[in-house]
Amino acid sequence: MTVIESSKIGTIGVGEGTTAVFRQMMQHLGIDEMAFLAATGATIKYGIRHRDWRRLGHQYDGPIDDPHRVVAKPGTANFLDEYLVSQGRSVGESHLFQRLIDGQRAPYARVSGKLIAAGPFHHAFHFDQALAGQFLRGQSKAVRIIDDQVAGLRRDPETGEIRALQMEGGQQVEGDFFVDCSGFRRRLISEMGAGWQSYRDVLPVNRAMPFWLDIAEGEEIAPVTLAWAQKSGWLWKIPTQGRYGCGYVYSDVHCTPDQAKAEIEAALGHAIEPRNDIKIDAGRLDRGWIQNCVALGLSSSFLEPLEATSIHGTIVQLMLLSSLLPDPAQRGRDAYNAAAAGQVDDFRDFIRLHYVSERRDSAFWQDVAASHPQAVTDRLAQWAGRVPGPQDFKP
């Protein structure tokens, strides 16, 4: 395997949150969790804390464990949720992870020098993606790395498949199968003819302003990602052991970058130093796998970072790809493209559901309330008389 990456292209590196599938991947690959935590400055994540989304002053957590997996099911598959809702109580009450969040507890106890898991569920992590990348790179074997950038593709004139990559340094890199992980550049897959399907008519934010915050001496690090709704979007706050990776995801239809910066400084009570101001074109490729080239991660889709869908989606893409590569014929590519597209479309609708809110305190929230897409209004009608359950979603 050969990896081509350029030391001239930097990374944003403002903190990442994963889902539980990242820990499952580490266990599958035999990666030591404690070594990962130590080397990357990562912290434990049990879920996402949503502040001011429903209304100002309202807060709820989204713990990522599923208590229905470890209890008998006398009726429906989500009977614990149904019971708690019927009693006017939070569905979080049945979650082990909600207890660990509230108590600021670790996922392990130390008994006679051994670590004993608090429960059977996979937790997630917060980390600096650059440090995590370095660690995972050190775990990789038999990988050749070329420090260069792709200047062009040499393709078979009959089949259209890629035969080699022409590098800026003059080298040609031949191969049988090519994975495009070039992020927003989409360096390979765009030249293969992939089109972009935008979600700008569904997702209301289109810019992101990342920044860092210091962790105060002696401050307790909450085991959650904070998603804090603001007047023109929302703020993320992801704790690592050394600092908070933060950012404001906002709509430039409703405020300028300078106004966004001022809004966050007013919310936090102090100045910030933005590291960038990134335009977001949320959407996905119409085809992520064309001929002998497949786009993974940000090369294939991009959504606002709510609910940590990016790393999760990339890992699921890898799982799908590894299951289908023994049959890289057209039927395998079609199956992959349909599954990958369906996943991102589901993420899009899931994210948009967060914007169903009682808030009308700014033009942004007023416009959002007046523009919910049909997929959202259909769900709201479906769930007006019953609690959502597994039967409402494709696996």
Your description of this structure?
By secondary structure, the chain is of the alpha+beta class. It has 10 helices and 23 strands. The chain has helices at about 20-30, 35-40, 80-85, 95-105, 130-140, 255-270, 310-325, 330-355, 365-370, 375-380, and strands at about 1-5, 15, 45, 45-50, 60-65, 110, 115, 125, 145, 150-155, 160-165, 170-175, 180, 195-200, 205-215, 225-230, 235-240, 245-250, 280, 285, 290, 295, 300. The strands form 7 sheets. A 7-stranded mixed beta sheet has the order 5-4-16-17-18-15-19, with helices on one face. The chain has a 3-stranded antiparallel beta sheet with strand order 2-8-3. Strands 10-11-12 form a 3-stranded antiparallel beta sheet, with no helix packed on it. Helix 1 (about 20-30) packs across helix 7 and helix 7 runs antiparallel to helix 8 (about 330-355). The two termini are about 30 Å apart.
What are its keywords?
395 residues, alpha+beta, 23 strands
What is the secondary structure topology, with strand pairs?
Elements: E1 2-4, E2 16-17, H1 20-29, H2 33-40, E3 43-45, E4 47-51, E5 59-63, H3 79-86, H4 96-103, E6 108-111, E7 114-117, E8 124-127, H5 129-139, E9 144-146, E10 150-155, E11 162-167, E12 172-174, E13 178-180, E14 196-198, E15 207-214, E16 224-229, E17 233-239, E18 243-250, H6 257-268, E19 278-279, E20 283-285, E21 289-290, E22 293-295, E23 301-302, H7 309-324, H8 330-353, H9 363-369, H10 374-382
Parallel strand pairs: 1-9, 4-16, 13-22
Antiparallel strand pairs: 2-8, 3-8, 4-5, 6-7, 10-11, 11-12, 14-20, 15-18, 15-19, 16-17, 17-18, 20-23, 21-22
Helix pairs in contact: 1-7, 7-8
